[in-house]
Design a protein that fits this description.
Low-confidence stretches: 1-11, 14-25
Pfam families: Methyltransf_28
CATH class of one domain: Alpha Beta
GO molecular function: protein-arginine omega-N symmetric methyltransferase activity
InterPro entries: NDUFAF7, NDUFAF7_sf, SAM-dependent_MTases_sf
Catalytic activity: L-arginyl-[protein] + 2 S-adenosyl-L-methionine = N(omega),N(omega)'-dimethyl-L-arginyl-[protein] + 2 S-adenosyl-L-homocysteine + 2 H(+)
GO biological process, one term: methylation
Radius of gyration: 22 Å
Helix content: 25-40%
Number of helices: 15
Largest sheet: 10 strands, mixed
Strand content: 15-25%
């Protein structure tokens, strides 16, 4: 089996990837995996990803966490503040459409450096008069000690208290504008209550299982040591069906190669049941497809494509999000919207108007060029505009009046959901 094709292109799916780099001297993770494979045989791709990304000693995220210009990939919030501002407006618009409840928990899964939350909090501050009677708090779900330190510096100026006595949080602080911020290792630890969830480039890094249709039926793709070349890894097919093959392949599947992310399914189930019970909404932004793609597993190092099996622990591993699977896993507990292309979502949110205002207010050519460049990066179909998607989970009553079937004419129409329709700003 080949490793992920170059057609899966770079992380921004723009074909900007270069050649994979040679492994550096950083072989501790490879030696650890090689010992494990020799002792107990091949592992699933999911187990390989989990080790390579989150192994406490040598994992890529636990040790490096390469976001930004100097890291291995750049995310939309790092490109432009407008991205985060428009997402902030989306949450406020939904909060208003739901009748301005008096508590507002913003819960971000995998917040990177904290740039996105920082941009959202700036919008909340600008609209402080609208939110004045609302109890706003921020809850970050982050496993990486390195990234949580970066987030703390960006959001609180580094003034945080580890292991606060209340809450199941491992760290607590206040934003520059006085909003309480809590850190957790797991979404289960976030207190229940009316919450808006955000997952930006979160699901794409969760471990996937890979399956291949063969003449003998479905087989799982596994990672093993190459008997011909010491300390080199290779893909092999399971000799018979594995438990994952039994559990994760849908009977109606027509593709011959499928990637499934069970962990994403579990998280979506949790989000859906929380929203069903306590209200709120979830916004997911990621690159992905609606159940059409096959082999999207790829690696990134220094902004270039990197062979997924070479020098594990030194590169970011990622796979496209299957939104059709997320929709299935919401199990009808909530309504789902999307996936809708990033450029459509941002256009609906008024990015063109925001850009115009910023261009008018910017004094120098360099700033204007930077604004136009970042707009192009986010909106150009060849760059991020078409391959990133937005997807939302909302309570059913947000889209359909619960008692509509009795007296449909007596109810005022529900406001459209911003981003998925044009934003109506009163």
């Amino acid at each position: 089996l080949p490793t992920a094709p170059a057609a899966a292109a770079a992380r921004l799916c723009s074909g900007a990837g270069g050649e994979a780099e040679a492994a550096d001297g950083d072989g501790a993770m490879l030696r650890h995996l090689a010992r494990k494979l020799r002792a107990s045989g091949p592992v699933t791709v999911a187990e390989y990803m989990r080790e390579a990304l989150t192994n406490p000693g040598q994992g890529y995220y636990t040790r490096r966490g390469g976001v930004g210009e100097s890291g291995d990939f750049i995310t939309s919030p790092e490109i432009s503040q407008v991205f985060g501002e428009l997402i902030g407006i989306w949450y406020i618009s939904e909060w208003m459409a739901m009748g301005k409840p008096n508590t507002f928990q913003l819960v971000e899964l995998g917040p990177g450096r904290g740039t996105l939350t920082d941009d959202i909090l700036r919008v909340f501050n600008q609209l402080a008069s609208v939110l004045s009677k609302c109890d706003v708090s921020v809850h970050l779900v982050e496993v990486s000690p390195k990234l949580s330190k970066m987030q703390a510096v960006m959001l609180t100026g580094g003034k945080v208290q580890p292991n606060p006595e209340d809450k199941s949080a491992y760290m607590k602080g206040f934003s520059k504008t006085g909003i309480p911020i809590f850190w957790y290792r797991d979404i289960q630890d976030v207190p229940p209550g009316y919450s808006f969830y955000l997952a930006h480039e979160f699901f794409d890094a969760l471990p996937i299982h890979k399956f291949q249709q063969t003449r003998k039926g479905w087989r799982e793709v596994l990672v093993d040591i190459d008997p011909e070349v010491p300390d080199q890894l290779r893909f092999v097919l399971s000799p018979s069906r594995t438990p994952a093959t039994q559990n994760f392949i849908q009977p109606e599947e027509t593709r011959d190669h499928v990637e499934v992310c069970p962990e994403a399914g579990v998280i979506v189930q949790r989000l859906a049941s929380r929203i069903e019970k306590d209200g709120g909404a979830a916004l997911v932004a990621d690159y992905g497809h609606d159940g059409t793609k096959t082999d999207t597993f790829r690696g990134f190092r220094n902004h270039k494509l990197h062979d997924v099996l070479s020098a594990p622990g030194t590169a970011d591993l990622t796979a496209d999000v299957d939104f059709s699977y997320l929709r299935k896993m919401a199990q009808g507990r909530t309504a789902t919207l999307g996936p809708i292309k990033q450029r459509e979502f941002l256009k609906n949110m008024g990015i063109d108007l925001r850009l115009k205002v910023l261009l008018q207010n910017s004094g120098d050519t360099a700033t204007r060029e930077q604004l136009l460049h970042s707009y192009d990066m986010l909106m150009n179909p060849e760059k991020m505009g078409d391959c990133f998607n937005f997807f939302a989970l909302l309570p059913h009553h947000r889209l359909v009046h619960p008692d509509k079937k009795d007296k449909p004419e007596s109810k005022p129409p529900l406001p459209p959901v911003a981003g998925f329709n044009e934003l109506l700003l009163k």
